[in-house]
Amino acid sequence: xxxxxxxxxxxxxVNGVVRTLTQTRLELIRMGHDxxxxxxxxxxxxxxxxxxxxxxxxxxxxxxxxxxxxxxPEALHIATEGPLGLAARAYALRHGLPFxxxxxxxxxxxxxARTRIPxxxxxxxxxxxxxxxxxxxxxxPTVKRDLLAFGFxxxxxxxxxxxxxxxxxxxxxxLPHVQKPPIFLCVGRVAVEKNxxxxxxxxxxxxxxxxxxxxxxxxxxxxxxxxxFTGVLDQEGLAxxxxxxxxxxxxxxxxxxxxxxxxxxxxGCPVAAFPVTGPIDVLGNSGAGVLDEDxxxxxxxAMEIPRSEARAHxxxxxxxxxxxxxxxxxxxxxxxxxxxxxxxxxxNVPERAQAKQAAR
Length: 360
Description:
By secondary structure, this protein is of the alpha/beta class. The protein folds into two domains: 2-163 and 319-359, Glycogen Phosphorylase B (Rossmann fold, 3-Layer(aba) Sandwich); 183-314, Rossmann fold, CATH 3.40.50. The protein has 16 helices and 16 strands. The strands form four sheets. It has a six-stranded parallel sheet with strand order 2-1-5-6-7-8, with helices on both faces. Strands 11-10-9-12-13-14 form a six-stranded parallel sheet, with helices on both faces.
């Protein structure tokens, strides 16, 4: 099947959306599909206000239309609600092309944290944007309930979980850092929505490490001189850091999933987090981490968890299974009044995909 994925989030950004789309495309190609990506790398861009690492594509409509005309996708997936997503959405509606979308991040909450724009206004935009989609893919049951509470129709919102590369993220030797144990590690974008101060303010023994980049990096470096900030690391470097850490701390209250949770556990690092969306769905009652409104208590208790339990839980998540779910929700184009062969291949079986996910 010829699949086009349109995304405003792409390299050199380092985040869960980019990682998810990269791995999904790789798995789809391994499964024999022809997958093209339409990203900001093909456009003139400007930095997003307050998020300069995010590039907003300029004058996208004409080029998006040209790319779609040339590629003639049998299935269209619009991954983000930015300029490219808007342009692809307009093209699809203009040409009667069915498409699916995804809701990766808690966009209304992020906007509210920066601008104080009411959540109701941003969710109104999201209902408009995703309304014509044949399916809106979300990472967890909690996020699905959130969207339903803000007026999304239930049949439209479907579950598309996330995975982890168990070959890269696995128990192994740590980075040879000089450090004072125990090591408490946080990995992610260094930005306001990640709530890093809730971690850095904790009175904990040992050492605090933060891996990642973002607009608050220099501010937090100055405010917390005893913490170690590594900047952005590649996947192998992250795996070594997870292996060095005693506890992975996830202070965010707004993430929809948190791929880093799976990465840490795949390396055998237990998790400490607040009992909120993301950690609740990823950890559940697995015993691979501790969820508590007292984050310090969660950190100390997580140190008692055997690393083998964390690894065992992570092994339940694979990118192949996630990609099969993604594929089942695509809505291929009907040509000449008939389904394409690709639609038959995809199975068009959201009910079966939901059942497989529930079984896992």
